[in-house]
Structures are given as structure tokens and as C-alpha cells.
């Protein structure tokens, strides 16, 4: 089967629109505010669109047409954009993701450089864990604060089927190494799929509690390259809560979740002892767009205001065309001012974005 194309030519890129004068209705604020009263302080940076796994809900078995190398931002370009975001736009949190971010050769140096910026953001990494055991110490020493490691099953055969690679031991090694390196709290990202791994929710929570990790169950979203997402088979937050209730007592965690997407629950044993917390990210069934504090950068330098955006703003062309930091910051503000109120997954007119999750940066 030929690789699935990203279909990028059909993406509406808007360097010119965003590069014009600020819209008259945008208030004079240095921050990334939008017209619905939100402010973006959390920057998601995709370091690469490539990956060494082929999770069935994310990528086809043969992979995708990867971005051509010249299109990918260099380390210096990336660091410059993060400096602009933290110096001028009020970003205080950066999450590195992908594709698989550990495949980016310069990752340790990028993190070291960001740690040395005048307004150092908190830094975390979302990874499938392959190769983390070798790099965890260096990443922590460079300034990485914590990691999310993706693990959808505890069973070797299932993991191999689900990711199309027999690498579950690497993930267990990654969890141990991340804890040893102090990249804590270590969070586990899990996507449950009906009749695939949805029977494992309580086991995954028990595993996490035993080792001091925190599981976050993520509802499957329509962001797969094959456009095979089906609302009818999606495992909902409500179903996850019901499955956990068979083994644990859940109650809402006392701290409000602020901009964080996960609804946090305290997990108690049948006898009432507090065992830890679990997170549920109900992006589809209980959208949290009203509290969104995200702004996103793809590996090829396209700014997205939302995972589900159908438009992008080309910052790479500005970086390479000699724009000043102030000009780039202003384009970023204008793009964010135009952020839509929600992702629209539940609207009848919803259209899945052309880029899949792996090419946006999940
Ligand atoms: N490769 C890294 C990893 O797997 O952690 C980082 C990128 S991956 C796109 C980030 C997260 O998105 C992973 O936890 C993955 O399980 C999740 N993910 C991928 N496709 C998804 C989908 N269609 N719906 C919900 N979550 C998804
Ligand atoms: Fe790769 Fe992460 Fe997508 Fe799995 S979810 S294929 S690890 S990018």
C-alpha cells in the first residue's frame, strides 16, 4: 500500500492575512488573547512528524509522506520562535511532542537552549517512550521538567498489535528511567478502543498507582490519518468512569482543573483509602474549548490555534524572509485573535483537518 498523503496543499495558509495590520477590534495587549476571552499561555511544539510506532488509531502501517527536511524548522528557528513566545507573548509552558519527539536529533540541545531563555517556561515532553531510557538523564539535566508516556495496554501481544511494533519493554523501561531521572510526575497517556483494550482501564490504573504514575485516559478523536474515526465505537469518558467504578471509588479531585484538559478524580479503595488520582480527557463528549489555553506550532513552522484548525499561519516564511521578532509576535497575536470558539466535532458540518494528529503534534 502506498503511504497516505498528508494532503497539505489543501491547507489554507494565511501568512498574508495574519501579517497585515492588527484587526481593528483586537485590543492592544502583548498576550495571545482571542475574541472569546481566552488567553494562550501553553505552547505545543511538534519536533518532528516522523514516528517509530504505527499506532492503529494514529498512523497507517506504511507510515505517511514525511515532511521534506528543508521544510522542517532548524533548531535555531525553533528556539527563536519559543523565545518570542516566552519573551513577548506571555507563554509560560512548552510541551514538546510529535510524531515521536525523541527522534529529533537535537532534542537535548533544544531543551537546554529553552531552559536558558530569559523567561524560562516549564517544559514537558509527550513521547511513546522508545529511547527514553537512554536519554532521560540528559533531558532532565538539560532542563526538562516532566514527561507523558503513551501506553494503551499492559499486554505484550496487544501492544504489538496496537502499535504494530513489539516494543512494550521499551515503554516499561522508559517509565522507570523517567522516574529515576526525576521527570515527575510521570503521566501515562492511554487511548481506549472498544473491543481492543477497553477492558484494561482498571488494570492500567492499578499499575499506575502501584508505581506512582498518573493515568490520563484520552477519548479517541477524529485525527487519524485514515479518517476511520467512528463516534459510535469511541469509548466515552462516562464509560471509562463506569468501568473504573467496578474496582475503585472515584470522586472529583478538590483542585479546579484551570486550563488543563484532564478532569481529575481522586481514586479510593473500596475501604475509602485515597490511592491517587486519575485523569480523563473528554475532548469529544465533554469539550473544554471554553478553557483552552493552547497555541500550537507544527514541525514545519505552521501556527495552529487548535488541534482541529483548518487554517494555519505560516511563521516559517516570516522567519526565513527576514521578519523581525516584533513582526512575528504581531502575526502570532493576530492569528490567535481569530481562534474559533470550539473544535466543532459535535457539529453536523464538522470536517476533520487534513493533517493527522502525528503531523500536528498531539
Ligand atoms: N508519539 C508520541 C506519543 O505517542 O506519545 C507523541 C505524539 S502522539 C500524537 C500524542 C498523544 O496523542 C499520544 O498519547 C497518543 O496516544 C494520542 N493520540 C494519537 N492519536 C489520537 C487520536 N486519534 N485521538 C486521541 N488521542 C490520540
Ligand atoms: Fe507515533 Fe504517537 Fe502516533 Fe503512536 S500515537 S503512531 S507513537 S505519533
In words, what does this structure look like?
- 28% of the residues lie in helices and 18% in strands.
- It has a single domain, classed as Alpha-Beta Barrel (TIM Barrel), CATH 3.20.20.70.
- It has 362 residues and is an alpha/beta fold.
- The protein has helices at residues 15-19, 75-88, 107-115, 132-142, 156-163, 168-180, 201-211, 237-245, 315-320, 325-337, 357-360, and strands at residues 12-13, 32-33, 39-40, 42-46, 93-97, 122-127, 146-150, 187-191, 214-218, 249-252, 263-268, 274-281, 294-297, 302-304, 311-314.
- Residues 1-17 have low confidence and may be disordered.
- Bound molecules: S-adenosylmethionine and iron/sulfur cluster.
User: In which order are the strands of the major sheet placed?
Assistant: 1-15-14-13-4-5-6-7-8-9-12-11-10
Shape: globular
- Which fold name corresponds to the CATH topology? TIM Barrel
CATH architecture: Alpha-Beta Barrel
Distinct compounds present: S-adenosylmethionine, iron/sulfur cluster
Helix content: 25-40%
Strand content: 15-25%
Kindly report the oligomeric state of this protein: single chain
Q: What is the arithmetic mean of pLDDT?
A: 91
Unreliable runs, pLDDT <50, ≥5 residues?
Answer: 1-17
Q: Which class do the helix and strand fractions yield?
A: alpha/beta
Question: Concise description?
Answer:
The protein contains eleven helices and 15 strands. With 362 residues, it is an alpha/beta fold. It has one domain: Aldolase class I (TIM Barrel, Alpha-Beta Barrel), CATH 3.20.20.70.
Amino acid at each position: 500500500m502506498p503511504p497516505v498523503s498528508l494532503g497539505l496543499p489543501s491547507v489554507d495558509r494565511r501568512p498574508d492575512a495574519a501579517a497585515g495590520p492588527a484587526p481593528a477590534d483586537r485590543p492592544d495587549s502583548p498576550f495571545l488573547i482571542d475574541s472569546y476571552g481566552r488567553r494562550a499561555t501553553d505552547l505545543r511544539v511538534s519536533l518532528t512528524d516522523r514516528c517509530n510506532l504505527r499506532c492503529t488509531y494514529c498512523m497507517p502501517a506504511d507510515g505517511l509522506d514525511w515532511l521534506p527536511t528543508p521544510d522542517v524548522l532548524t533548531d535555531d528557528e525553533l528556539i527563536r520562535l519559543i523565545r518570542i513566545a516566552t519573551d513577548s507573548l506571555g507563554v509560560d509552558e512548552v510541551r514538546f511532542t510529535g510524531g515521536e519527539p525523541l527522534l529529533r536529533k537535537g532534542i537535548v540541545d533544544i531543551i537546554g537552549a529553552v531552559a536558558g531563555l530569559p523567561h524560562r517556561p516549564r517544559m514537558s515532553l509527550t513521547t511513546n517512550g522508545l529511547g527514553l531510557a537512554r536519554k532521560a538523564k540528559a533531558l532532565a539535566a538539560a532542563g526538562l521538567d516532566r514527561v507523558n508516556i503513551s501506553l494503551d495496554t499492559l499486554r505484550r501481544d496487544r501492544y504489538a498489535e496496537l502499535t504494530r511494533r513489539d516494543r512494550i519493554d521499551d515503554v516499561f523501561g522508559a517509565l522507570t528511567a523517567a522516574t529515576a531521572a526525576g521527570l515527575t510526575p510521570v503521566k501515562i497517556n492511554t487511548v481506549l478502543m472498544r473491543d481492543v483494550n477497553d477492558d484494561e482501564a482498571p488494570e492500567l490504573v492499578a499499575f499506575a498507582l502501584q508505581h506512582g504514575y498518573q493515568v490520563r485516559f484520552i477519548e479517541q478523536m477524529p485525527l487519524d490519518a485514515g479518517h476511520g474515526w467512528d463516534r459510535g465505537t469511541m469509548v466515552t469518558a462516562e464509560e471509562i468512569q463506569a468501568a473504573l467504578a467496578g474496582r475503585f471509588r472515584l470522586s472529583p479531585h478538590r483542585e479546579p482543573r484551570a486550563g488543563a484538559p484532564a478532569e481529575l478524580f481522586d481514586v479510593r479503595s473500596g475501604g475509602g483509602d485515597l490511592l491517587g488520582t486519575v485523569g480523563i480527557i473528554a475532548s469529544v463528549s465533554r469539550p473544554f474549548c471554553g478553557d483552552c489555553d493552547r497555541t500550537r506550532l507544527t514541525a514545519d513552522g505552521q501556527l495552529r490555534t487548535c488541534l482541529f484548525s483548518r487554517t494555519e499561519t505560516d511563521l516559517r516564511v516570516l522567519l526565513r524572509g527576514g521578519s523581525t521578532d516584533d513582526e512575528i509576535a504581531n502575526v502570532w497575536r493576530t492569528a490567535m485573535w481569530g481562534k474559533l470558539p470550539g473544535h466543532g466535532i459535535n457539529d453536523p458540518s464538522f470536517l476533520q483537518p487534513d493533517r493527522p494528529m502525528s503531523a500536528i503534534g498531539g
